[in-house]
Backbone:
């Protein structure tokens, strides 16, 4: 269902006044957002990113507990830090943001898309191909690489963040449970399910993040 309650709750904790009516959300703040200690009931990637951005210009310190640890959160924190933000702990479950008065421009190269990289790897394997995936930061998809090797795929890490994959004619099945990072990404679950249709044996795929992720199955 992907509710936005955690986003709204967090912004209200920082001092925003939020009203929802007829499908619209109106948010206001009187002067400046105020730093707070906020604990997420559930891990939320975009919720963490929203509050991370909001807290950079809030007055005082904001602590985000049970924060998402995805690489995208770390990359956003790196960008904001280059722009003058004061952020500690990105990539862990506790992020501290010390509000600053203003931000400035900067140059930043966005990290490679790990879901796109994982999709290409599975594509290379499922077709029995020989594929080189360049500049994909293998550490961001370590859980998936490990599972693909269990299935019998040959994946070599090359210099510069490149991956070389060779598909095998005979793949073994392997179970997967989707989890928050650094676990197996839910956005790679459909691709992996397709791969398992070509493997020997039975694979059990457990989805723990979204309730409609198996709509592609039927």
Residues:
């Amino acid at each position: 269902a992907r509710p936005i309650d955690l986003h709204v709750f967090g912004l209200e904790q920082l001092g925003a006044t939020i009203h929802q009516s007829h499908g619209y959300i109106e948010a206001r703040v009187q002067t400046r957002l105020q730093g707070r200690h906020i604990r997420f009931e559930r891990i939320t990637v975009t919720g963490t990113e929203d509050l991370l951005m909001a807290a950079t210009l809030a007055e005082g310190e904001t602590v985000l507990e049970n924060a998402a640890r995805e690489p995208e959160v770390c990359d956003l924190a790196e960008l904001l830090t280059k722009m003058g933000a004061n952020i500690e702990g990105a990539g862990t479950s506790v992020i501290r943001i010390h509000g600053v008065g203003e931000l400035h421009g900067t140059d930043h190269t966005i990290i490679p898309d790990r879901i796109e990289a994982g999709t290409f790897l599975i594509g290379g394997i499922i077709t029995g191909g020989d594929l080189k995936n360049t500049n994909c930061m293998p550490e961001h998809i370590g859980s998936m690489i490990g599972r693909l090797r269990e299935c019998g795929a040959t994946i070599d890490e090359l210099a510069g963040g490149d991956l070389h994959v060779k598909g095998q004619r005979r793949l073994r099945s392997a179970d997967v449970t989707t989890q928050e990072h650094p676990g197996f990404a839910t956005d790679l679950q459909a691709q992996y399910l397709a791969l398992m249709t070509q493997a020997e044996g039975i694979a059990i795929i457990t989805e723990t993040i979204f309730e409609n992720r198996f709509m592609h199955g039927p």
Summary: The two ends are 20 Å apart (CA to CA). The mean pLDDT is 94. The first helix runs from residue 5 to 13.
